[in-house]
Amino acid sequence: MQQLVDALAERDGREQAADTLAQALGAETLLILVRDRETGAVVPASGFPRTLPGGPSWHAFLAACERPGEYVMEVDYPDRHHRKTVRAHACADGSVTALIGGTPRSGASALSQQLLPIIRLLQSEREVIAARGAAAAAALANQQASVLAATLDQARRRAAEQASQLQSALRETARLNGELTELTRTLEQRIEVALAERKLFAEIVENTDALVLAADLEHRLLAINRAAANEFERVYGRRPQIGMSMVDLLADRPEHQAAVKAMWDRALAGEEFTATEAFGDPKFDRRHYEIKFNVLRNKDGRRIGAYQFVYDVTERLQARARFAKAEEALRQSQKMEAVGQLTGGIAHDFNNLLTVILGGLEQMDRGLSAIPDLTVANRMRRSCDMAMQASHRAATLTSRLLAFSRRQPLDPKPVDANRLITGLADMLTRTLGEQVRLEVVVAPGLWMTQADVSALESALLNLAVNARDAMPEGGRLTIETGNAFLDDDYVSTIAEPVRPGQYVLIAVTDTGIGMDGGTLEHVFEPFFTTKPVGQGTGLGLSQVYGFIGQSNGHVRIYSEVGQGTTIKLYLPRASQPADPGRDAPRRVARFGGDETILVVEDHDDLRAYSVNVLRELGYRVLEAATGPAALEVLAEAGRVDMLFTDVVLPETMDGRRLADAARRERPDLKVLFTTGYSRNAIVHNGRLDPGVHLLPKPFTSEALASKVRGVLDQALIFTPADRC
Question: What angle, rounded to 10 degrees, do the helices at 374-404 and 314-367 form?
Fold first, then answer.
């Protein structure tokens, strides 16, 4: 490594040494920039590439480096079609050390400290070069001044000789002027009329917004207005003038030359047409133009060339493209909304049924020990286990559908993504198997993010399983974290609504078989899968997509066939630090109790199941099927410690309204909600309302017992809806 660093001291081969050092560190490019003492600008040091990408993201990067510190930014590099991660360290003296692309194994700050002598050498070289340039300029100025003085003396002598000749010429001119005066007076009258007419048309053409060009049959410019000359110079870097050949102007750009010549050849051959094409060198600018060609004829009607009127329609086409994207986003949103409504319509009843099924299977499992015939008991236990597994898979399927449709109740809190991913590493390693190597690269100084921990863990597990299936012969799965900023330029290219700002990035990269463009267009759609029948539901990525969207984040996928896949999750930065003790799980020492619980559930079987479980635990249980009936029970009952109610109830009173009404009469009443479908009664913008306790359906008897005991033992924090 020290040899590579020392090689940077030699100007010859410095760029190659920098590339070698960058690759040794795991990056694609190493760039050192120093401060120009005269201009104050940050420029590449001597021996490093002088051509920089430019663009808003690069300017934002340079602006950030004005302040000392370490930065990680997404930059359009080396052009606006590829984004790379730039990790940079800016020193107090204005120098910047930047690692571009790849996955560096060393931070920019550490590298900057290691390269400090080299950076000082490069800064000195910059100052020496500037001093030499100033000295050379001064010497050249002195030399030119001497030459100019000699030339001036010679010119003076020649001027004296020519002055004598000029006096003789003036006398002859005076005589001729007298003869021409009369002729001029007559011509002026005729010319004045003609010039006025031509000036009028010239001003119209010169001041129009249209780009106007005329050329002869040899492609030489006969006329060009200021707007056309300015636009040509802007998109090709050179200014055309009358008499120049348009073909020669683009001689160093064969592809552009061929496109321009092909269109003009049609017009010069006598064809009049209108076309919309893109022209311009991408290094300067490339725009779309609407071009109307007409034939140019002389007064005898003979074809002598062609002329064109050109209009820049780039914004119009971009607006049309944005409109098409918006339409597509709307269709996607409508499709997601339709799936969400369908899912919500069945989720409530389906989860009610699953709860009853799971409860019945638990009862059967407990009763199998009483069967004296062990063979029969074992056969029934296997059947019971299979039914239990199928029920859990069905519950997972419903949960994934709700996640995709953004109707799962989330409880987001500040999360340390580095700690979460590190804690998941062992489980992910077991899930991936021996053929897949897991690498976790956590970024130092990572911001806290705002997310539901369980949903985020589930999303990462889904991505890991998908990656494992994409590497049947084994490979490597890399999970990286980093701080990211999504600027206005990037956000404007995204169809779905995403706010610009600070995000925590979690990137999951595999070395699998990859996907083509056609597959990428559908990967987030529900039930879309490339796996064989029976090996996937097609809801893994859909669940991830729905969870990230519901968390106000952004997901981006990159993939190439044979090159693997990278999925980037952008989760919003948390505004508050995490409180490790606030949300720590409370251990329930006991499940049963002697408190009084009112169970409100319109599904008879599910209500009977819940009532039986709670009574077996020792609780005194009251029950009702509707909200109004529950209020009547509360009015007649004595002590009631808890209301356990379904959110979705008939007769226009849902569980939240019931809880509000009950709490007005009994302020100390504790409330536990249950639901198989997240409606807006207790969930808003995808988040549980503050102070709300929820037991999602389907639930087991153990989950019911634990949740009820936990809520009964907690302090009262429920907030009525009218104060939320």
Answer: 160
Query: DSSP label at 393?
Result: H
pLDDT at 653: 85
Question: Which amino acid, residue 622?
Answer: L
Instruction: Kindly state the tokens that stand for 641.
Output: 């410690």
Per DSSP, 721 falls in state G
DSSP for 482-501?
Answer: EEEEE-HHHHTT-SS----E
DSSP 439-487: EEEPPTTPPPEEE-HHHHHHHHHHHHHHHHHT-TT-EEEEEEEEEEEE-
What are the residues facing 212 on neighbouring strands?
Answer: 309
Cα dist from 64 to 96, 156, 306, whole Å: 11, 58, 51
pTM (predicted TM-score): 0.43
Q: 256-288 burial string, b = 16+ CB within 10 Å, else e?
A: bbeebeebbeebbeeeeeeeeeebbbeeeeebb
- From residue 249, alpha-carbon distances to 354, 445, 668 in Å are 75, 53, 86
Whether the Cβ atoms of residue 381 and residue 404 lie closer than 8 Å to each other: no
In this structure, what are the phi and psi dihedrals at residue 671, rounded to the nearest 5 degrees?
Answer: -130, 135
Max CA-CA distance within the chain?
Answer: 144
**Mean of pLDDT values over 109-126:** 82
Instruction: Identify the CA nearest to 32 among candidates 78, 77, 101, 89.
Output: 89
Q: Which residue has the tokens 């560096």?
A: 104
Residue type, 625: A
pLDDT value, residue 433 = 84
* Mean pLDDT taken over the chain: 79
Q: Are 293 and 274 in contact (CB under 8 A)?
A: yes
Other Cβ atoms within 10 Å of 660 Cβ, number: 17
Average pLDDT for 329-358: 66
Q: How far apart are CA 305 and CA 10, in angstroms?
A: 58
- Cβ(217)–Cβ(268) below 8 Å: yes
Q: Which three-class secondary structure state does DSSP give residue 717?
A: coil
Secondary structure in 3-state letters for 170-184: HHHHHHHHHHHHHHH
pLDDT category at 397 given cuts 50, 70, 90 is: low
Q: Which pLDDT tens digit goes with each residue over 614-657?
A: 998 999 999 999 999 999 999 888 899 999 998 888 877 888 88
Angle, in degrees to the nearest 10, between helices 453-469 and 417-432? 40
User: What pLDDT is recorded for position 528?
Assistant: 53
Average confidence (pLDDT) over 328-333: 66
Contacts of 450 (CB under 8 A, 6+ apart): 412, 413, 414, 415, 551, 552, 571, 572, 573, 574, 575
Given a contact cutoff of 8 angstroms between Cβ atoms, the answer to whether 410 and 394 are in contact is no
Banded model confidence at residue 680, pLDDT cuts 50, 70, 90? very low
Q: For residues 411 and 437, what is the distance between their CA atoms, to the nearest angstrom?
A: 32
Sequence letter at residue 375: T
Give the 3-state secondary structure percentages of the chain, helix then strand then coil, rounded to 5: 50, 20, 30
| CA–CA separation, 478 and 564 (whole Å) | 11
Helix (H, G, I), strand (E, B) or coil at 400: helix
Question: Regarding predicted confidence, which is higher, 396 or 86?
Answer: 86
Helix (H, G, I), strand (E, B), or coil: what is residue 585? coil
